[in-house]
Amino acid sequence: MPACLYVQEEDRLRASPFHLPVLISFPVALASATMLPFPNISEALGRNLTAAETVWFRYSAGMHDFWLYAHNIVFLLLVYTLAPLPVALAELSRPKAIHRYKIQPKIQVPVADVLRCYRNVVKTFVFAVGPLQLLSFPAIKWVGIRTGLPLPSAWEVAAQLGVYFVVEDYFNYWLHRALHCRWAYEHVHRVHHEFTAPVGFAAPYAHWTEVLILGLPAFIGPAIAPGHILTLWLWFVLRHIEAIETHCGYDFPRTPTKYIPFYGGAEYHDYHHYVGGKSHSNFASVFTYCDYIYGTDKGYRYHKAQPVKLREQNDADEQYGEMTNMSGKRD
Ligand SMILES: [Zn+2]
Ligand SMILES: [Zn+2]
């Protein structure tokens, strides 16, 4: 059996800054060639493929990198549709069982509002997030996101995801804080704050301009530490799940994210929505360190320091007094 690899397979073996040394030199030399000087991929790698690598090779070898990258759009839509469902269904079917974990227990967001929110977000996905993803493909290629073999190690993936989360959190903090200036809030950010008691489906509910603005920091980490496209997929999925969790409206005990150092969580971001347009607190999207360093968590810490009874009384007097209905949305 003639066992030469064609250019398409060379694409799958393209090197990146994190590649093993054996693969660093030959893809460059072969950029204009039609075949690789190896009888098969195992010889090119110097070892047998792992099961995961075999699956990846079979799936991706015949697919252009553009379409691999475009998977992100499908993943984001799937995660947005499925991840908020468990809490939303539990709230509908067993509200008493989870009521004690509800952060703003007096607010019940009507199903009609959730459905309208879902429709709006899907529209934003189609007309803003999708095009942003597709148009950013040349940049993704330019920074060196790779699609080939070998697959990244778990350690490499974890290290890169750590960088992505910290970098995105920092830039997101400043952009979100800027969106709270009077003009930007009234014209752009106000939409996201319509839900004073957020629900999971409201995580990406925002003006399309905000979706694009706050989407950009998600690309800075991958530009600084480019990795495999699988890592990139995972990054967007995890960041999306994190946003849905912090907007879910419940502070469940023993949530795995509670064990992440400096992680904000649902209660932390819920307070930002609770205060609404007047909010000068809890701007960070993932961690708490930016708000702590720049002194924008003082309102939240004061709120938390109050005895529970007084806090509940204030919640009733201050927050709900401002609201014109019980939907968790400001009109
Ligand atoms: Zn805000
Ligand atoms: Zn929010």
From TrEMBL:
Family: Belongs to the sterol desaturase family.
One of the protein's GO biological processes: lipid biosynthetic process
Protein name listed in UniProt: aldehyde oxygenase (deformylating)
Fatty acid hydroxylase domain residues: 163-296
GO cellular component: endoplasmic reticulum membrane
Entry superkingdom: Eukaryota
Record's bilayer topology term: Multi-pass membrane protein
Transmembrane segments: 20-38, 66-90
A GO molecular-function descriptor: oxidoreductase activity
Composition skew (Polar residues), residue ranges: 322-331
Intracellular or extracellular location(s): Endoplasmic reticulum membrane
EC number: 4.1.99.5
Catalysed reactions, semicolon-separated: a long-chain fatty aldehyde + 2 NADPH + O2 + H(+) = a long-chain alkane + formate + 2 NADP(+) + H2O
Main localization of the protein described in the UniProt heading: endoplasmic reticulum
Keywords: Endoplasmic reticulum, Lyase, Membrane, Transmembrane, Transmembrane helix
Organism this protein belongs to: Ensete ventricosum
Region feature Disordered, mapped onto this chain: 311-331
InterPro entries documented for this protein: Fatty_acid_hydroxylase, Sterol_Desaturase_Related
